[in-house]
Amino acid sequence: xxxxxxxxxxxxxxxxxxxxxxxxxxxxxxxxxxxxxxxxxxxxxxxxxxxxxxxxxxxxxxxxxxxxxxxxxxxxxxxxxxxxxxxxxxxxxxxxxxxxxxxxxxxxxxxxxxxxxxxxxxxxxxxxxxxxxxxxxxxxxxxxxxxxxxxxxxxxxxxxxxxxxxxxxxxxxxxxxxxxxxxxxxxxxxxxxxxxxxxxxxxxxxxxxxxxxxxxxxxxxxxxxxxxxxxxxxxxxxxxxxxxxxxxxxxxxxxxxxxxxxxxxxxxxxxxxxxxxxxxxxxxxxxxxxxxxxx
Amino acid sequence: xxxxxxxxxxxxxxxxxxxxxxxxxxxxxxxxxxxxxxxxxxxxxxxxxxxxxxxxxxxxxxxxxxxxxxxxxxxxxxxxxxxxxxxxxxxxxxxxxxxxxxxxxxxxxxxxxxxxxxxxxxxxxxxxxxxxxxxxxxxxxxxxxxxxxxxxxxxxxxxxxxxxxxxxxxxxxxxxxxxxxxxxxxxxxxxxxxxxxxxxxxxxxxxxxxxxxxxxxxxxxxxxxxxxxxxxxxxxxxxxxxxxxxxxxxxxxxxxxxxxxxxxxxxxxxxxxxxxxxxxxxxxxxxxxxxxxxx
Amino acid sequence: xxxxxxxxxxxxxxxxxxxxxxxxxxxxxxxxxxxxxxxxxxxxxxxxxxxxxxxxxxxxxxxxxxxxxxxxxxxxxxxxxxxxxxxxxxxxxxxxxxxxxxxxxxxxxxxxxxxxxxxxxxxxxxxxxxxxxxxxxxxxxxxxxxxxxxxxxxxxxxxxxxxxxxxxxxxxxxxxxxxxxxxxxxxxxxxxxxxxxxxxxxxxxxxxxxxxxxxxxxxxxxxxxxxxxxxxxxxxxxxxxxxxxxxxxxxxxxxxxxxxxxxxxxxxxxxxxxxxxxxxxxxxxxxxxxxxxxx
Amino acid sequence: xxxxxxxxxxxxxxxxxxxxxxxxxxxxxxxxxxxxxxxxxxxxxxxxxxxxxxxxxxxxxxxxxxxxxxxxxxxxxxxxxxxxxxxxxxxxxxxxxxxxxxxxxxxxxxxxxxxxxxxxxxxxxxxxxxxxxxxxxxxxxxxxxxxxxxxxxxxxxxxxxxxxxxxxxxxxxxxxxxxxxxxxxxxxxxxxxxxxxxxxxxxxxxxxxxxxxxxxxxxxxxxxxxxxxxxxxxxxxxxxxxxxxxxxxxxxxxxxxxxxxxxxxxxxxxxxxxxxxxxxxxxxxxxxxxxxxxx
Lengths: 295, 295, 295, 295
Hints:
two-stranded antiparallel ribbon; flat; 13 helices; homotetramer; Helix Hairpins; mainly alpha; 3 domains; Four Helix Bundle (Hemerythrin (Met), subunit A)
């Protein structure tokens, strides 16, 4: 949001070294080892927060979990301080996506000293796991994620129209259902908000079954809602399929490294791309096709 | 259904001004402010109707909700009267989609004086929220909605064939299930209509669980119904995907502003866009087609 | 299965007239009226069978339902006899799809005299409703149904491979689940067949909830099965989408009347088809594009 | 993993004959008969293991099931020994996919002598059923399976990105839900792991209903999770659809026998098929491409 994060320029040399370890991945063995240890620490600390919420475990191993929780919090605090110290612009890092996540990962534990019960919020540190993409240098994965994101972004208008339609439908169908089932003895449909919740559960084909229609008319309307939901799921699926097809096609044409269907066959005469892997002559001008490096 | 709605032509000038405020969106600041206030009023009144159905809230805040309900009803009545007064043809507005919705939004509250309990019908005013598209001038959204609508319309024959197949299947499978499970002690499958309802619940993968097979044969048939439903969901999805792909392609060709996939093939003679990727001659003037950068 | 059904050639003229009424739809007003009455009779008789299974209705209106059931059975028996009498080859009609359905629609009621309880089987007459396609001359619908059928047939190998994979997966996952949950006190997973049934319920995302895992390990495995089912639904969907896209494309190219995306733009110089609706010049040779009738 | 399995080269001639029966399918009638008997034996033995877990059956027919189980185990042991004896490299067969499955199919029954209860593991022999592909010489099915596998492999990066996103989402949403519902009297959301399990059940639209939100805020968040799951199912579906479309296209080009969509573009000089629809020159010899009828 404010340019790339870069290495501190002034100050003692240890801050540059710290930057290498914390932010780089392949400069030396320490950075690599640190990254892998960090991922392990993040995953372990998430498991600790989860186990701490299980009553039977929390009672038996309270000391252990409490200690582990503070151990990881102090560790992540030191890491956060180190990152702040070793970047050129502290503000830029603090306001970056990972900067905010890194802060949110340690705040809940400190907060729990003031307001007990908030340590569950520390689960937010699961988001730090997304660093795994950088650590394992999974550029390819990021390329694919970008492509999925682009396809989503391109179809956002259609998806919003679809969601507004679904929400309007669910409010209306829920209200009709309330009129049908609301007066029945021992009904589950006690109010319109509850019935709208039920309509969402039914239309999305989740079907918890905690609320079910009792009357024949109610079951008939429920069956229609289910068939609508069963058919309407085709709409977001169709939208995303079409966008993904375009994204894949565009990536292939523009030589985007995230395209997995890109080949390097180009005509030596007319330079036209897009030939098959096994082509020897240009399908447009009849010239010879050669393989070139696109990157 | 009877031509566009237009401003009243005769009468005092305040009726023309009223038209501007109620029907236009960008003529002056008043119209814009009115539109935003209207959307807020619609959403608030829908929340009031929903909360009124929650027993615990309705008892505590009965006076407040009752007052709010009548406040919004009177407000919407005045608005409806104003719209009627300021249009050229009252009949044309009254029979238009929004004219009917505007009327239905106020009728239930008046009806509840005669027949208590009908005020829940006022939830129909959620449909007035669709005005949001006009207010926010979301032409782009309307274009996308039209495209989704076109794709749906183009595939209506296939979807009807699919639905007839599903209904026939569900009646037959439900009846077979009734023969298998209907005689079991304490069965949930008490009649064929109930069993057909269960078959819809199962085939659409909703699965409430209020009715479940007890016998091994019943569970075997249920498993087959589930696998059918799991596989058959592919049919509407495939139909809509293909139609959306065609609609997107058609939109690209015709230069529809709702098409996000415009290519860069332009005629070098007449500058007409919208040619196929493989076109060599302009389909409009016969000139040579070249690829240019559109951005 | 044995050539088309045709009008009786010899015999008195009333048999030819009977054929016209029973098998034709547009020769005269009687045939049309008969067809519509037939569809109404079929639907009514299906409703009678369904209502007869509802205990509260069956007790109150037993005489009415019993009478209606026999009325329709005698009616359909007379119709079946008439059809047999008026066709050239009785064997050909009796072995045709509709011939078998017509017979199955009347047999259960007679059988119920010998074996009470079998009248529920009369629900099979719902299949006679498929005649509606012929009655309403919905050739277009039949074309679409054929296209869906072709797409299904073309992907049958892939769908069978997918189903074998799903069944194998479900047996293995169900057995592992039985090992995990089978020994727990008060478990729902009482045997491998029940657990395999649960695995189908879970993998297809139906989720009745009559059988649910209690242990943490069981819930973890259940979560993995759900994610598999959530992702695997993409496979049949993708298969059918691709096949439908090909079927639509092929229909367009071959001028099949069931193709809705067929246009009639052909180049007058090189006869190349496949131009846009708004094309005036051939995109390949630059010649003039004209609209011709393809049928 | 270590080259193809081949017939033993030395030793007495009965080992070569044994190889023909056990590994070949069409050399003589014995091999064919053996293969069919083997499939029947595998399916029967799987049914025996399943029935053995049903308490009511196991008690009544314990002797029969116990005998059948040992009969099949001895049979499969002899078969395994025969396969080992008749192959050139015992190690190669023992480490092949079917070699491992063949061993795992017999081990559990022997293990049950030492550790009772492990005979349920014998269900693993269901995997031996995959031999059915070879027995029925369903090369076509294998081609389709390979194509599905290729499409899956090509989209693995996108699917992994999608799964990491889903898991992260489910952990975060589960934890928020725990904060909302965890303190309610008589809640089902007793710990974060249980709530994350519920989030998977809800996001994948399975919806068991064993755990359901009670508070209005919880139901609101649950509705949002359901809508996300309902929309997100489009992502894997879109990914697989696009990949299958590419795989089908690629198969068409390379003349793969599993491709059912061969087009009719053939070179007029060298008769090579598999050109694009828009190709004008042969990609292999540079000759002119023409469209011919393939059937």
